């Protein structure tokens, strides 16, 4: 090869072709159709992390200190994904140990929500999801988070995912909403309220 390395030195290819027939594997090795609600929930969680990544980039450009928290949330969403990808019905003890999801991150989100809420003016009307790029991207992340939660709740109800995962996504949407308001306030952007069209 041109760089002198052998073929075996090269990184593995990004495509595996194992999903070409419309099936994919859970963490437990179970093959399920790609339309299975587990993959729906995984996809929504991945989209949520990507949306938060974008919000983090906009917020970083404005020098917001909460960007570190957003990075931590993205790491937690990897753990959310691991839990979703480990359906309890086919999980062995070793799987459960590696992918369990505790209540600790839920409590941390609640602390963050309280801390930002204390600094915000009370809400007196419906606000529109705008307020500068950081704020708008955080509002968008919140909407994606709601969808991820709607995908996860049936898995929890069926006993396939940990209830703390649904709780985490529920608190996360509240956190993203409060953070969107906080970002707008810090950037001196006015909140636009809903006005019924004439």
Automatic annotation (TrEMBL):
Top-level taxon of the source organism: Eukaryota
Pfam families, per the entry: Cob_adeno_trans
Annotated region (Disordered), positions in chain: 1-29
Reaction equations catalysed: cob(I)alamin-[corrinoid adenosyltransferase] + ATP = apo-[corrinoid adenosyltransferase] + adenosylcob(III)alamin + triphosphate
GO biological process terms held by the UniProt record: cobalamin metabolic process
Keywords: ATP-binding, Nucleotide-binding, Transferase
InterPro entries for this protein: CblAdoTrfase-like, CblAdoTrfase-like_sf, PduO-typ
Assembly and interaction partners: Homotrimer.
Annotated function: Converts cob(I)alamin to adenosylcobalamin (adenosylcob(III)alamin), a coenzyme for methylmalonyl-CoA mutase, therefore participates in the final step of the vitamin B12 conversion. Generates adenosylcobalamin (AdoCbl) and directly delivers the cofactor to MUT in a transfer that is stimulated by ATP-binding to MMAB and gated by MMAA.
Identification of the protein by name: Corrinoid adenosyltransferase MMAB
Gene that this polypeptide is encoded by: Mmab
């Amino acid at each position: 090869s041109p760089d002198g390395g052998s073929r075996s030195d090269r990184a593995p290819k990004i495509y595996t072709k194992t999903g070409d027939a419309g099936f994919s594997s859970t963490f437990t090795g179970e093959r399920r159709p790609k339309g299975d609600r587990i993959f729906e929930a995984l996809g929504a969680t991945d989209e949520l992390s990507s949306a938060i990544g974008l919000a983090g980039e906009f917020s970083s450009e404005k020098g917001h200190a909460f960007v570190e928290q957003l990075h931590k949330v993205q790491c937690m969403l990897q753990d959310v994904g691991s839990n979703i990808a480990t359906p309890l019905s086919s999980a062995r003890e070793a799987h459960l140990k590696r992918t369990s999801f505790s209540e600790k991150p839920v409590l941390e989100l609640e602390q963050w929500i309280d801390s930002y809420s204390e600094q915000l003016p009370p809400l007196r009307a419906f606000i529109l999801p705008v307020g500068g790029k950081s704020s708008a991207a955080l509002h968008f992340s919140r909407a994606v988070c709601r969808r991820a939660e709607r995908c996860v709740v049936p898995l929890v109800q069926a006993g396939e995912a940990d209830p703390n995962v649904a709780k985490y996504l529920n608190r996360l949407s509240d956190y993203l909403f409060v953070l969107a308001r906080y970002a707008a306030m810090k950037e001196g952007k006015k909140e636009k309220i809903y006005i019924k069209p004439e």
